[in-house]
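Work Package 4 report. The design task specified in the project plan requires that, given a folded chain encoded as structure tokens, an amino acid be chosen for each position. We show below one input record used in the internal validation round.
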């Protein structure tokens, strides 16, 4: 049965001489793997594999069978045309970080509409935003993804609760008796990021590159604490090098 759905490309793997197996986070079915025949060709006009780059947002017509692990695509085209993400090295690196993080977190083929729309919207905002916004976008996306996955932060930073306990996801009055917590300044910045209602407001949250680097690794530790099968990511060192952040 054919279905129309939007989707975000997570990963592509070559199969045979001309085909690809493409992992896509879809609007209707969550994460799915698709066989795409003829996506690679020696004739540039015949090859559509460039549409299947990780991070691309697609409009799809797909066959879906609940009992199969590998589905098929009938039609696909770009659902959003990036102006900068594939051309600007900073924005491209941020997009690839977001995509790798999604790959690490999305294991089950289940519909997650709120998460899908949040991700698609954030990728589009990445495309059009100033670099002052983009610098903090990985931090913001990581925190908000955690919230979507069910481990949101509880409470607020204040002079009475100045420490963020990463094991509990809660702001506390005293440093917990373990290493998985943030100091007062990092806790305050995290609260500002998490409470941000408009991506453009991220430009107003200022921090130096070392603080930004430490926060991102702390947030990834937060994921490891709450997702037992969360494995090491490869993109953060590249991200920090490119962002100088």
């Amino acid at each position: 049965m054919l279905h129309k759905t939007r989707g975000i490309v997570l990963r592509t793997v070559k199969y045979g001489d001309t085909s690809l197996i493409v992992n896509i986070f879809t609007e209707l079915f969550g994460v799915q793997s698709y066989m795409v025949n003829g996506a690679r060709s020696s004739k540039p006009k015949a090859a559509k594999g460039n549409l299947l780059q990780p991070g691309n947002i697609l409009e799809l017509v797909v066959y879906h069978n609940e009992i199969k692990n590998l589905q098929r695509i009938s039609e696909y085209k770009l659902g959003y045309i990036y102006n900068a993400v594939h051309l600007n090295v900073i924005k491209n690196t941020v997009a690839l970080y977001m995509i790798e993080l999604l790959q690490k977190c999305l294991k089950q083929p289940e519909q997650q509409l709120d998460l899908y729309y949040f991700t698609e919207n954030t990728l589009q905002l990445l495309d059009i935003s100033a670099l002052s916004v983009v610098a903090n976008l990985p931090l913001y996306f990581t925190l908000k993804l955690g919230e979507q996955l069910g481990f949101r932060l509880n409470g607020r930073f204040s002079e009475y609760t100045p420490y963020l306990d990463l094991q509990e996801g809660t702001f506390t009055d005293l440093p917990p008796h373990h290493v998985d917590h943030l100091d007062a300044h990092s806790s305050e910045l995290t609260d500002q990021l998490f409470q941000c209602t408009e991506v453009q407001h991220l430009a107003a949250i200022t921090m130096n590159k070392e603080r930004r680097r430490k926060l991102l690794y702390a947030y990834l530790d937060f994921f490891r604490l709450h997702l037992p099968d969360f494995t090491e990511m490869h993109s953060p060192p590249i991200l920090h090098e490119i962002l100088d952040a």
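The chain has a mean pLDDT of 93. Validation will be extended to a larger panel in the next phase.
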